[in-house]
Amino acid sequence: MKPVTRRATLAALGLSAPALGTLSACGGGTQPTGGGGSPSSLSVWALTGAKQDTYQASFDAWEEANPEDPFAVEFFANDSYKEKIRTAIGSGSAPTLIFSWAGGTLADYVDNDSVVDLSGRVDDTLSRSIESINSVGQVDGAQYAVPNNDTQPVILYYHTGLFEEHGVTPPTTWDELMTAVETFSAAGITPLSLAGQSVWPELMYIQYLTDRIGGEGAFQKVLDGEADAWSDPAFTTALERIVELVDAGAFGDAFGSVSADAGADVALVHTGQAAMILQGSWVYGTFKQDAPDFVAEGSLGFLNFPAVDGGTGDPANVVGNPANFWSVSADAEEEVQELAIRYLNEFNLNEEMVGDFLAMGAIPAVTGLEDQLAALDDGEFLSFAYDMVLAAPHFQLSWDQALPAAPAQELLTNLSQIFLGETTPADFVAAMNATLAS
Amino acid sequence: MTTARHSRLRTAPSNWLLAPALSFFGVFALLPLGGVVVLTFFAWDGLGTPRFAGIDAWISVFQNPVTLHAMWLTLAMTALSFAVQFPLSLLLGTFMAGHQRYREAYSVLYFLPLLFSAAATGIAFKALLDPNFGISRAVGVDWLRLDWLGSPNLAFYTLIMVISWSFVPFHSLLYQAGVRQIPRSMYEAAMLDGAGRVRQFFTVTLPQLKYTIVTSSTLMLVGSLTYFDLIFILTGGGPGNATRVLPLDMYLTGFRSYQMGPASVIAVLLIAVGLLLSLGLNKISGSDTMDSQMEGA
């Protein structure tokens, strides 16, 4: 069946865009029609899913204003995009606008002179977006990427009904979290829903715990490539806390089978099988879509990750994806680069785009939204997440995005083995230190 | 000699007719293969220019515990999936070769998995085997509620089961065709000699199926070196490294870690093992000798 037909069928069935993104990701995604980008005209690749229409509308608006220089737009599923973009950049056929998560990948592009230095040339778009997020798009102090969508902090969601029923207070400290785990575990409810099969949700635990215990400095040393940076006691303590959680049955006995792709981890919470879930702000949309009544009756609570006693990290710190970013390809001709930069200044995260994101329950990475957010249907959640991001002294980009590809994969493998009890914190530290040497 | 050559030239079609197929094979199989071999001597992350690195990639692959583990897993998977699939498909194929109507009805059911793509099979089994939302809850059978794909001890055997489910129908089809080609007269002769069903199977059916067995086994063994799509969808190599077989290790090393050198080494190893395996099978089975299987038929 052709993707178009499948999409039309699903749309007819009333499945909304995020579900489509997931489904087409499973089926291998939209097949690209053309090859890479051409250096002499504007082109762009972005991701399928809920935000696809917003991007399309933004590029359509550009085309209306600049009919002689339209963007050639292609959309890819998440995983196939990540694989294809690297080959395209490596072979000099990258699209003009390069979509990324910043971090290690962006640093690779900069090392390879694949993207142009935007410092001082994109001030208009940067003036709209949040400063702490803008800085994620910098490499060695120069601006190489600008935020292009919503900010996605990781949030601790909980089932208010289950908490009331079992007389548990929503945890704001580690001890309260452990008490909640014990209570729910004894009651036969999975305390924390975890998509262990997808592995990356496990990162959220070590990221928050390390930050709470030792602050953002511990991981910064890893990024700086300091020898034995993983030996920082913050990592070992965080890993021990994870083992403590696993041993207490915090994730149930079958988290290895739970996958985040189809929202099974979220489903465990809204079906009352699990009490809490640590996930990105994007699953709020999944909750709303899969269990609208559950959200409407106020059964979904949300918290920042609990503080850890004796930890030196700021409990207001946030981890997650600050945003996605646009960079401009260095392979494009000079005039085409200028056009792309003009698009970024005039159209990226402009009022229409921000409005579109707000309408879908996403929090665009721009300043001055406080009043608008409160007035929306999902105002309570959106304001909570927005304030959380604005109040955060440090917004840590997900480690698997921040690190170069090979160490990131090593990290995911070793972390999943910690959760499975197949390796010890000491072995984890040794294995990760070995990635620093190479 | 001269006459033979002369007559061959007159009757055989021109060798030039091979040219289109050969050139396709050259461009799309041999050339990339050569590229992969060359790439094993370079360090390349997919961006920029590959840097010559000598035999670094080869050393790193043989020192990497993950890849060594993947080799063992692949070996175990090859052996185990053969041990499960071979008897099952042989017996099913023989059973379905009969012309009774009920057997033909069964055959239709047995062949159904052949119609499904590996991706669809993977997604369906992943959903069915989910301990929280899968079949165990649907039918309320508690012993089915195991962490099939999420437990490091169980996931590997679950994969063998799903793989067998998908590939047994194909091999049964081969055996069904093989059995139907055995002349009826041989069974009649065996019956006159007083051979029962079981005896007939071992002295007539099995020896007559020799070449089918070689073909099917080669496909099974070499095929098990390329299991990728099903495993990729079902477990992605997890939990931990419990199902990270060599083809998956190659993919993850190349396209997740962007270490094209080591990934190419693994690819070359897979090709070498696959070639050796199929050549070896042909040699052992003696299918290069041309003696008749139909003596006395």
Structural class of chain A: alpha/beta
Instruction: Tell me the CATH architecture of chain B.
Output: Orthogonal Bundle
- Which word captures the global form of chain B? globular
Oligomer: heterodimer
CATH topology type of the largest domain in chain A: D-Maltodextrin-Binding Protein, domain 2
Q: What is the radius of gyration of chain A?
A: 22 Å
Estimate nothing, just give the exact number of structural domains of chain B: 1
What is Rg of chain B? 24 Å
- Number of DSSP E strands of chain B: 2
Distance between the termini of chain A: 45 Å
The end-to-end span of chain B amounts to: 34 Å
**Any idea what the CATH superfamily of chain B is called?**
MetI-like
CATH class type of the largest domain in chain A: Alpha Beta
| Element string of chain B (H = helix, E = strand) | HHEEHHHHHHHHHHHH
β-strand percent of chain B reads under 5%
Shape descriptor of chain A: globular
Biggest pleated sheet of chain B: 2 strands, antiparallel
Provide the low-confidence segments of chain A as ranges.
1-34
Largest interface: A-B, 38 and 34 residues
Number of helical segments with 4 or more residues of chain B: 14
CATH fold-type name of chain B: MetI-like fold
Written overview of the protein:
The complex is a heterodimer of chains A (438) and B (297). By secondary structure, chain A is α/β, with parallel strands linked by helices. Chain A contains 22 helices and 13 strands. In chain A, strands 7, 8, 9, 10, 11 and 13 form a 6-stranded mixed sheet that branches. In chain A, strands 3-12-6 form a 3-stranded antiparallel sheet, with helices on one face. Residues 1-34 of chain A have low confidence and may be disordered. Chain B is an all-alpha fold and 297 residues long. Chain B has one domain (57-286): Orthogonal Bundle (MetI-like fold). Chain B is built from 14 helices and 2 strands; from the N terminus they run H-H-E-E-H-H-H-H-H-H-H-H-H-H-H-H. Chain B has helices at 2-11, 19-39, 56-63, 65-97, 101-111, 118-128, 135-139, 155-180, 184-192, 197-208, 210-224, 229-234, 246-255, 260-285, and strands at 42-43, 51-52. In chain B, strands 1-2 form a two-stranded antiparallel ribbon. In chain B, strand 1 (42-43) and strand 2 form a beta hairpin. The mean pLDDT of chain B is 86. Classes of the chains: A alpha/beta (438), B mainly alpha (297). The interface between A and B is large, with 38 and 34 residues.
